[in-house]
Amino acid sequence: MHLAYPAVLSALLFCTGIYGVLARRNAILVLMSVELMLNAVNLNLVAFDVWLSRTTRETPHSGQALTLFTIAIAAAEIGIGLAIVLAVHRNRGTADIDKLRDTAEPHGPDEGTVTDATEDEKAEATA
Question: With contact defined as beta carbons under 8 Å apart, do 26 and 95 qualify?
Answer without folding.
Answer: yes
